[in-house]
Write a structure and sequence with these properties.
Helix content of chain A: 25-40%
Number of helices of chain B: 4
Distance between the termini of chain B: 23 Å
Oligomer: heterodimer
Largest sheet of chain B: none
Strand content of chain A: 25-35%
Number of helices of chain A: 14
Structural class of chain B: mainly alpha
Number of strands of chain A: 26
Strand order of the largest sheet of chain A: 2-1-10-9-11-12-13-14-15
Shape of chain A: globular
Structural class of chain A: alpha/beta
Helix content of chain B: 40-55%
Radius of gyration of chain B: 12 Å
């Protein structure tokens, strides 16, 4: 039997359960036959546009069936998806399109950045194709019409080791970081997650995390790979509406980052909703305060909570804490997922002893091919047969992994990783700014918030609002510093680098 | 329609999410989420603003786009809650 890929798994699900719902979004439900057909139509459409295997196709959508059909259709055509962050500004996305040599952009014209990105794409010689997704009824039929009608499914499909997707993990102006994942990477990680969560075709999940990032991406693929149903949401901005939908539709699984759960718990009494069918929760994306873990467990005693750890460079997932160990291993991110090996190493590559802090490394079929067009960063991350995560951690005597910090400086704002350098570069471009340092400060809801400390040039005047407005125009909303302060000088290390910890 | 309540709501959003005092930057019917003006935490802050600055309690079941997704909707919601109080 040939090795499975996401596209072959979707086709198999469509053969087994053609009329069962795959995706539910607003008033529309797409069956497996419809989703598989829409993906095939997309693949045929791309071929008529001259797209060849290996070509990169950029996608700009919020969570919607249209995104999913475009994503799977791109894979079925042997092309490579480049999911664009729907929170990011057009100029950043245009750089990612250029960096990934995407010649075709599919996207929703209702997206606030669509006109700008389409214009930039066309100016750069690419083609921008509108795929409207804002109508509530008949969305499947309209999507098919948009793609030129039905097409045959099947065919040989892409090779497992071919490139499947490029996910940009940071938009740093000078150096876009595009994680290259193969079909095997995605399919193997999807299979491992399905296994430890015990997902079945009877499951009905709900997606509130954006599909363009690895966590949301894995929620999508795990459900589609086994023929389960996924309800689509775009965010957790209206927590009551999400909870009510979960109760009304008998949702069985929910995935979030710490801020997702903090938002749910901050305004809503979970016991007020009939969530009896909710059998599991997953949480990744940084440590969740123990108080919130305990509140979740108290308010949802019937749902098993999986605490997990991973990164985009590992497709998504590296470890999980079996829920039955949550009490005695509270604070741990658990053990390696099936098929993956995890270790903690000293700086010289020698395995660390139990309880000794070192760098977390991993190997397995989920580890990326590398960073696009960046040999040096790839070499730093993939050394001696291991993925070097940049995270510090230790294993206890029973082999359970604990995270102790990050070797590479990154700020974690809710679900998002933010490079302090990127924010510094943007602020440094404001006239009057002599120096700037950006760091993380604790935030009750988001885990961390961004703080910028600015030193002005002699005689220059600048106010907080001007700084924030400039950031808002040049950065995604979640990258805008929550705190902006002015100082006479910045703290420096002996080697002349800004000492970020001293800024907090 | 614009009145002191609309102005107060619009000013809060302009000041905290668009970092400007130019009312032309935010239409009264603009979708706050659809235009990417606020995100999930921003919506929570708007709810706190409604409760603390406008003196109207927002129940779980009232946290829906129909009540909160534009300046006009927020103003209409606050007005109806004040009348009912």
């Amino acid at each position: 039997m040939s090795e499975k890929t996401l596209t072959s798994l979707l086709e198999a699900a469509a053969r087994r359960r053609p009329d069962e719902p795959a995706l539910s979004w607003k008033a529309a439900r797409w069956s497996y036959a419809q989703l598989s057909g829409a993906a095939a139509a997309t693949a045929a459409f791309l071929q008529t546009r001259g797209a060849a295997p290996g070509d990169r196709i950029a996608l700009l959508f919020r969570n919607s069936p249209h995104y999913v059909a475009a994503y799977y259709g791109t894979l079925a055509a042997g092309c490579v998806t480049v999911p664009l962050n729907p929170h990011e500004h057009a100029q950043v996305l245009a750089r990612q399109m250029e960096h990934s040599q995407s010649q075709l952009l599919l996207g929703d014209p209702a997206h606030p950045e669509w006109s700008a990105i389409a214009e930039l794409a066309v100016a750069a010689g690419a083609e921008a194709i509108e795929v409207p997704s804002e109508d509530d009824a008949g969305t499947h039929a309209r999507y098919l019409r948009q793609m030129g009608g039905p097409a045959a499914t099947g065919g040989a499909g892409p090779a497992p080791d071919a490139l499947a997707t490029i996910i940009y993990t940071s938009g740093t102006t000078g150096r876009p970081k595009g994680v290259m994942l193969s079909h095997r990477n995605l399919a193997s990680n999807t299979g491992a997650i399905v296994e430890y969560l015990g997902l079945t075709p009877e499951d009905r999940g709900i997606a509130v995390l954006p599909f363009q990032f690895s966590y949301g991406n894995s929620v999508l693929h795990t459900h589609l790979s086994i023929g389960a149903e996924l309800l689509l949401e775009d965010s957790i901005a209206y927590p009551h509406a999400v909870l009510q939908r979960m109760a009304d539709e008998g949702v069985t699984g929910f995935s979030g980052v710490p801020s997702t759960f903090a938002l749910l718990l901050s305004r809503c009494e979970l016991t007020a909703y009939d969530l009896r069918k909710l059998r599991y929760l997953t949480q990744a994306g940084g440590p969740m305060p123990k108080a919130n873990i305990q509140r979740l467990r108290a308010q949802l005693p019937g749902a098993r909570l999986f605490v997990m750890y991973g990164q985009t460079e590992a497709s998504a997932r590296l470890s999980y804490l079996p829920p039955e160990r949550l009490e005695d291993k509270l604070g741990s991110v658990g053990i390696a997922i099936p098929g993956v090996e995890l270790a903690v190493q000293r700086a010289d590559g020698v395995p660390a002893n139990p309880n000794e802090v070192g760098e977390i490394v991993a190997r397995g079929p989920n580890v990326m091919q590398g960073y696009l067009n960046d040999v040096q960063a790839t070499h730093e991350a993939l050394r001696d047969g291991w993925l070097h995560t940049g995270d510090l951690g230790h294993c206890d005597d029973d082999g359970f992994l604990y995270i102790d910090g990050r070797a590479v400086e990154m700020i974690k704002v809710g679900a998002f990783r933010v490079s302090p350098q990127e924010v510094e570069e943007v602020i440094a471009a404001i006239p009057g700014v002599a120096e700037v340092g950006v760091t993380a400060v604790p935030d009750e809801l988001l885990g961390q918030a961004i703080k910028a400390v600015i030193v002005l040039k002699d005689g220059a005047h600048l106010d907080v609002r001007t700084v924030k407005a400039h950031c808002r125009q040049n950065l995604a909303m979640y990258k805008v510093p929550k705190l902006v302060v002015f100082a006479g000088t910045l703290p420096y290390t002996a080697t002349g680098k800004v000492r970020r910890l001293g800024l907090a | 329609m614009s009145d002191p309540l609309h102005d107060q709501v619009r000013r809060f959003i302009l000041e905290n999410y668009l970092f400007t005092d130019d009312p032309a930057q935010l239409g009264l019917d603009d979708s706050l989420l659809g235009r990417g003006i606020v995100d999930s935490t921003g919506m929570l802050e708007i709810i706190l603003f409604i409760e603390e600055q406008l003196g109207v309690k927002v129940a779980d079941s009232e946290m829906i786009p129909e009540n909160l997704d534009s300046v006009n909707r927020i103003a209409a919601f606050v007005t109806s809650k004040r009348k009912a109080a």
